[in-house]
């Protein structure tokens, strides 16, 4: 029989007590390497006049001041926020309605789920080009279909009109990603114990009363996940705009993500990094506020 000394036992107990700290070390190192280090480097570059080629000089907060005096940048902030205000609520609304519908038993349910979710697995850039060929004025699939139905007066250059282009982009984005929102809500719906609904029926609760007092409160974790991810995704929108309008007509649909890319390739590395940090703040502030406001409202299963 192996004899273990007193010192060895103390060492094993100490390791066991602090084991969770050692196990969290890889995650901390990865977070520091892939987030903290790039963030600190980005803050440093944003305070310089770097163009990515010549040696950079420290210019303090000039890049940030320039941003808030740039009309094009302010227009892009407006476009980005409007896109998020349109996209995030619609994604949650239609995702929730789809989940309620597809949580019921009916023939072909799996096929409908697949059809709703399928666009989400296609590259946003490819999806944007597909919609571009559908919506092309006088050449696209929609134009020819309306022409066959003698409804050509309904067609128009929606992507070429600054008053409608952003709305079309919002709808395309919602159409593509509503499947992801739906899946999260479906998972939440299927985790609600059926006994609660049965108890509600015994107490005389109608369908809408059950929805109001059982389903929605029990879905708070899913609602939080969907709202946070949709805010982040909508405020950092890039691919669909690039594919459908390239930010046009003019700069009427240009988002901050596209603006950052164009400044970067325009040899304004320091400035584009400063704008990226501002976009980071624009994304993180509403997410933080939302999580703080809803923190006390989450119901435990």
UniProtKB/TrEMBL annotation:
Q: Which positions, given as ranges, span the membrane?
A: 21-40, 81-102, 114-134, 168-187, 225-244, 264-291
User: In the UniProt record, does the keyword Electron transport occur?
Assistant: no
**CDD domains this protein is in?**
TM_PBP2 (cd06261)
Tell me where it mainly resides: membrane
Q: Which UniProt keywords apply?
A: Cell membrane, Membrane, Transmembrane, Transmembrane helix, Transport
- Topology in the lipid bilayer: Multi-pass membrane protein
Its annotated compartments are: Cell membrane
Q: Which GO terms describe its biological process?
A: transmembrane transport
Where's the ABC transmembrane type-1 domain? Answer: 77-290
Q: Which family does it belong to?
A: Belongs to the binding-protein-dependent transport system permease family.
What name is this protein filed under? Sugar ABC transporter permease
Origin organism of this chain? Answer: Paenibacillus roseopurpureus
